[in-house]
Amino acid sequence: MITLSHEDHIANVSRQVRQLRAVVTSGADLAAGVPTCPDWTLEDLVRHIGGALRWAALLVARRATAELPEEEVLLFGGPGARGDAAALDAWLEESGRLLVEALSGAAPDTPVWSWFEERTAGFWARRMSNELAVHRADAALAAGQPYEVAPEMAADTIEEWLRIVRFAQRDPDDQAGADLRLGGRTLHLHATDAPAGLDAEWLVELADEGVRWSRRHGRADVALRGPLTEVMLAFQRRTRPDAGSLEVLGDRALLDFWLARTKWG
């Protein structure tokens, strides 16, 4: 199985910031709506991403032991003038550089506060790499541009998302998480184009004690099958499960049930 190191995640942050900057400076309409984040324009999305990069950078740089308020993050909300692609690009470049520098100066097991069960610099490297992977897709959709992501990153985004869903289920007040305790109903994610050694299949069990999964082929109540990037985007609610080259085999209602209950916020 291909796994990504701390250094891989840092390199991915740097690479994806460059890719997102290319969208900002491409002439795309910064006031265009984001189909997958309907309350945001493309500029709102970029400001959200850059602010998150700066917040994570400050957490890691300070070796924070508690959550830091946004007010302590310099230029958290972005440059003052709206609609200025050059200023937004420069701010985003600096946001990415601050995070890369902070992460590069910390071992992956360096203690750093997080909202997750893993409170390390390594968590933030992986989280921000995958945050960028998903939000770059949002930006590409808003700009009407193609989207590409490395296979190992797409797979890591799926794997991390499953961990986040399982973590969220531990909250006794999370009704959506409780709804996913379905006595062992199963979903299968099957990437049809994964390179050798990646193991880009997941058998996901909606067990009564919480979601669990293994990286293997297997029969399930419903399967989502297709190219890895498309599987990742559908699993992250960025495209429809039947869009593009994707196929849904079996109980489509179960897949829709999962997707409706696994989302941020």
Which characteristics define this entry?
Four Helix Bundle (Hemerythrin (Met), subunit A); isomerase activity; 13% strand; five-stranded mixed β-sheet; single chain; two-stranded antiparallel sheet; Nonspecific Lipid-transfer Protein, Chain A; 2 domains
Query: What is the helix/strand order?
Result: HEEHHHHHEEEEHEH
Radius of gyration: 19 Å
- Beta-strand content bin: 5-15%
Shape: globular
Number of strands: 7
The CATH class of the largest domain, by name, is Mainly Alpha
What is the CA–CA distance across the termini?
31 Å
Low-confidence stretches are: none
CATH topology of the largest domain: Four Helix Bundle (Hemerythrin (Met), subunit A)
What is the second-level CATH architecture of the largest domain?
Up-down Bundle
Note the main sheet.
Answer: 5 strands, mixed
Estimate the mean pLDDT confidence.
96
Going across the biggest sheet, name each strand in turn.
Answer: 5-4-3-6-7
Q: Pairing-aware structural class of the strands and helices?
A: alpha+beta
Helix content: 40-55%
Pfam family, one: MDMPI_C
Protein name: Maleylpyruvate isomerase family mycothiol-dependent enzyme
Organism: Streptomyces fragilis
Domain Mycothiol-dependent maleylpyruvate isomerase metal-binding: 14-140
